[in-house]
Amino acid sequence: MGKSTPVQTITFPLEGEFIALNDLLKLAGVCDSGGAGKALVAAGEVSVDGAHESRKTAKIRAGQVVGLAGIEIRVVAA
Questions:
Q1: Can you point out the beta strands (E) in the chain?
Q2: Disulfide: which of 21, 37, 54, 70 matches 5 by Cβ 3.0-4.6 Å?
Q3: What is the pTM of this model?
Q4: Segment-wise mean pLDDT, segments of 10 residues, the chain, 78 residues
Q5: Alpha-carbon distance 38 to 44, whole Å?
């Protein structure tokens, strides 16, 4: 059995109806820029609600969970 990676949970308060996935990654502090967020998505590193997400600007709404590399971003209404 392999070692399980501890999950870091980030709660992100969403102002407005939705946020683009690449912008969420940047604003949650997971990457340095929207471009870096797009690269993570393009590399297949990101999931939304447990399913692989390949759309860099997918609309993420309150109640959704974005995951990557041991990090879980829970999006909540502000």
A1: 8-14, 19-20, 47-48, 51-52, 59-60, 65-68, 71-77
A2: 70
A3: 0.89
A4: 71 97 96 93 97 97 96 96
A5: 10
